[in-house]
Amino acid sequence: MSLESSSVSVSGHRRSFSDLLAAHTAKRPRHQSEAELRGAAIQLLNRHQNLSALLLEGSTSVSEAQMDLDVENPAPRAHPSSRAGPPSDLEDSLIVHALQRQAVELGVPVGVVSSKVAAERVVDLMGRSTGCATGALLSSIQRAKLSALVRSIQGLRSKAAFSPHIFCRELWKCQPTLEVAWLLHSGNVVTLELILESEEGGVAWLGAEMRSLCGGAAVGVEEDKEVQQQVLAGVVSVLLQCGFQDPPGRISQLCVAVLEDMLSWVLDGLQQGADLHSGTEAAGSWVWVLDLTLCQVSLSDSVLRRFFTHCLTYVLTCQPQFKVSDAIANQSEWTFAKTTRPLTALYRKLAVPFSVDELLCHLRNVLETHEVNWQHVLSFVSTVLVCDAQAQRTLTELLSQLLSVAFESYDLENMVTAFLLARQGALEGAAVFPSYGEWFKASFGSAAGCYGNSKKSVVFLMKFLSDLVPFDPPQYLKVHILHPPYVPVKHRTLLQEYVSLAKTRLADLKVSVDEMGLYEDSSGADVPVQPGCQAPQDVEKAIRLFESSGKISPAVMEASIFRRQYFLTRFLPALLMPRVLPDSPDSQMSFIESLRRAEKIPASLYSAYTQSCERERLRREHGLEVLKDLQPQERLQAELQELGILLSAPGTEEEVLAQLARISESLALLIPERPDETPVQVTVCLHPDSLASPDLEHQRIADVVLRGFCQSLMDASRLRPPDRQGPWASRFVQMLLGHRKLTACLLQRLQGLICEQGATLEAAHLLGLAAFLMHLHECRARCPLVVPEPGWPPNPVPFSEALGASLPCSTATEMAFALRFCAASVCYALCRFTLPAENVQECFPSSLWKKLVYLLPRLLPGARADPLAGGVEVDDEAGQAAWRTITDPSASWESLVWRLWREPRVRALWMLPGGQLSFAEWLDAELGVQRSRDALTDLERIEYQQWACQQHYLPAPLEQGGCDGDLRRACSQILRSVLDLHSGSPGSRIPDTDTCLPDVVCRLQELMGELDLTPPSPESEDDNGTFLLDLVSQRCSATSDPPALSSQLDLERTLHNWGRVVVALPVTALLSVRTRPGRTSLDCSAFMEHVNQAHRNVCDSAGRLPYTLTAHFFKGALYASLRCKHPSHAVDELLTQLPQRCPLLLVSAGGWWSPLCSVLASLWTRLTGSRLPQEIQRLADCYSWACSTVRGEVVPPPTAEPLLLAAFLHHVGRGQGGDRAIRTTLGRLEKLQERRRPLLVFLLFFCVTDLLAVLVQPPEADRAKQAQAACLEVLSYLADSPDWLLLFKSPAAEQHEYQAVSMTTTDRNIRLMPLAFYSLVTNLDTDVLGKVTRSAGFLLPALHSYSALTKLFLDGLIPSPGQAPPLQAVAAAKQVLLKIISQSSVQSSSSQAQLEAACGELDPEVAAALSSHLLYHRHSDPLYGDLDYL
């Protein structure tokens, strides 16, 4: 059984070793001596020894009894080390003997054994193993056991049986907690100095333990709090004694390092703010430690002062992360009130041992010798100033010394220090330190200042202040401007330069120098002043000064002269606020009267003030009765006028909203609406032709409302820019939109004023209406949609967009107004609404922006430079500056608009998507300008348009609306816009004449000229000039077949306009030169296809293309042939293709040959000097032959196509003798033999074309008869031949050699050929009709023609101008067809089958007659089938 187990009594309570000895003493035999008993005890211990437990037994019974009491009643008591008595000599002897025996057995000194056993016991008591985390406090039981162990170790040390160094080394293997270390230190077992000196990492360990103990301050047991405070106080006392001893040693450095680590930890906790509670608790614990340290009697005054001086220095220099510029900008956040309380408590505790003079002297030394933490320095100064009344005097002296030294040696650091300390003191208020303005005036405001009159000092000061400008908050810049330093007259330019620089900086900070108050607080405190509050404060102070002195204060008089803008627009409106005047003049009335006598108040303003006061008196006396007695419209006017008065006064937003409610009520009385009334239409048409007669009463109300809004905006703008006026304008517009009946009239009136009466509007009205439109755009979701014009797209658009699009820009007057209005609108929107850069365009209608972008470079040549040149730097104040400029009545509109265009924010809009005017939009706008009333002269317009086309849009990329350097794209766009110019839109504002079309066509000619001179690329060579035909081809292909009348008219107009434009372009535009290996040739395939598909439908009545287009083509062929190796051969090769590919060109040439021949001959002579190409000469020969034939001469025809010969003969005959000449020449054609029949067939075709022309259009009676007679005459020569029937077959059927007729006439003529057929057949002589009827294959074309004629009748396409009604024409054709059926014969069964198939397309009567006729022939000729079979 061990010694420890043997100490347990029967009752279960543990007894000490002394108690056991005492019990045995009572039982020992009397013959045994004490020495014998001691030997027996030692022998017993040797059998059952536990050295670790034995050390705990070395305590007195008092300690054991106290431990038992602690277990039963854990009340707070004194530390156990202070309660236990020293161990007895017997106990020490027994323990030492046991340790010595163990040491002998191990062969080591007894001190080693005892130190290791003691260290093991300490570790067991802590309940920790090697490497465990840092602990906190011991429990009461652990604390009692450790105290007993400490007493045992003390006994061992007294017996020289213990080694502190070995014990320290063993204990360090599992680092003890701070309480354990302190108990060992206080028990003189092992000192803290020994741990720090002997163990590596001791400084870090001690710092971590102290931080853990400070951080665990929130313990629940009072005893633990006492132990914590005792341990901290004791450890700090040891560190101070060792750390600040004289002379210092290595242990001093270690102790100071621990203290600095603790102080840095406290400051970090307060600075980071991650866990404010933890940081505050830690700082509180450390401040308590400092407070306890001051009360330590064991510490000398010198040690304390050195310690607190070191701590103060460390705090001021810890983590110098702020630059001087940061301190200047942020020191207003480092005042005493804004500094955390634990940090100010730390400052106060560190300042206790020192006087104010010593503190600031030490501060100066630190500033001169260290790099400091400006936040700590300035917050420390604030703390000293607030907590010590003597600090103001000392700081003032320190500032004077710093300035003196600074100007003596021109030391910038002392200058910066002085300004920072002065400003920091001023931030604490006038009760603590003079304001910054007073200090600045006292230091620099007189000639007796610290810097004297030397130029070098003045330059030094001005340079210093100028360097501060980029970092100075606005309140300090205001002080420097309001109270400038004294500068001799000869150096005044230096001060002026600084003032200009400071004002520029204030403008960048959006702080107006003109709006600074007369008595503005110059303390330097950055206290935000509500807009409009400064002037009432100035008025109140000026009245108080007037009461005390009876005179107008000098500040008011100076402001009326030197700060007139603020005096008139801020001070006087605040002073002259309407009120009920007292019966006897008060101080304010006297003050106003004094200013009036001094002629400081304008007469008009004073008169308005007296009238407003009178209205206020009536309103107070009668309430609302004054307004109720007025008529509704007069009441509305009065309320709108009162709204302007409210907006003129600052700080009345609630009253403004209430006034808007009263205005809405008045409108409801004027234009009542029932709650159950159905809403008005959601769309409004603004086109003048579609507007109903306006309600004059509603129009007058709309005028009153708009006039009131404009006046209110001007009143509000006198005080503040739009972005500082509050939401009154938006609420005003929203209120109006709530009155549905008024909205439509209001929008129509606004459109009339802006688009029709804009030139008569005054500047105030223009600005007001522009702002009103911007707020309508803001509320576009609630505003009714409008249909501006019938020609617009069917979908309604927002009113603001429609108004911007319909804003006229055709004349100089309209352009000037549109430019002013668009500039005012954009300027107001930029100033009023704050949106991100990418959303700025949502502030205003895009149509207004496009008008502004169009008009600016047109009217201001300087704006034609690239807006993006030099980059764009967006400035948020651009809108405000432009608004101040645009509301300046002394500036011209040109300069104002030019100023707006140069603003970076406006120029930045150019970069946004959709911010640039596209080439198509520019062309549409330019074509709408009236040349005779243009703002530009002819030469200026040419210069502008050339810039726009050549320099701006041609090189601009596609995404910016340009042409990306593509001349073809530019030409196509111009052609498209020209064709759209007269598109027939009923709502188009573009006039039919006096437009800029000639100028735009000239630009097209210039571009085409450049394109013609550009060497062709492989891509452009394959283009074949089709880019001029693409647009018109697309429009032609979009028409139906047969087209509607409107579509047909639009197509004809488009083709005519296209032809007129094309003939103004270079003659080679319609042809291209194709280069193939070994040869070059002319190609006009695209143009020939265009003529065949589209342009043949717009020929004249003679079936010819226009002369201009025909001549243009042939001249182009001659010019383009010069690019070929053999020009004449190239022309011949091209013209030989025309009979098969485009015969209409040859027919047109034959029709216009008389004027065309001389042109081509002279042109070819100029170009080559040789004879005409063979094909051109062939055309000339055909013309000569036709002329000779018509004159009666018999001349053999040239070798040419029958179609060409017939065309020349027809046109020459019509030109020289009319249709009669054609009939006289038919007999002379008998000698043509085999060539006679095709010629007569084509001649019949041209005569039928003439007949159709007179059938479609209202003709003269004689001409219709002549045309019909000519056709019958030609037909009489062809009665024996069925070839002429091929003319009346559909183009889809085979026409053999006469296929060209469908390519030389219009689609309308082709559809009307059945009408021409029966117009001829019904008028044939009996003999001729008999011949025709008996000709082979006549009946089938007659049936098809009748079927087609019937379909024309059913579709309503038979023209009858001056002719028989369509039904009569169909009936006559039917009678003739029945007669033909009865007289005709069927030659074969195949013909019979075709006839039977045609029966299904005929009316019943004709079908029955045909069926009967076929049946008769089948029965009357039995061999018919056999013959057919054979």
Written overview of the protein:
This protein is mainly α. The chain is 64% helix and 1% strand. It is built from 69 helices and 4 strands. It has a two-stranded parallel sheet. Strand 3 and strand 4 (1079-1083) form a beta hairpin. The longest helix has 23 residues, at 250-272. It is elongated, with a radius of gyration of 57 Å. Mean pLDDT is 78; it is low at 1-14, 20-29, 58-86, 129-133, 622-626, 870-874 and 1422-1430.
Distance between the termini: 152 Å
Radius of gyration: 57 Å
Share of helical residues: 55-70%
Our count of helices gives: 69
Structural class: mainly alpha
Secondary structure tally: strands? 4
What best-fitting shape do the alpha-carbon axes yield? elongated
**Whole-number mean pLDDT:** 78
Strand arrangement, largest sheet?
1-2
Share in β-strands: under 5%
Q: Name the poorly predicted regions.
A: 1-14, 20-29, 58-86, 129-133, 622-626, 870-874, 1422-1430
What's the story with the biggest beta sheet? Answer: 2 strands, parallel
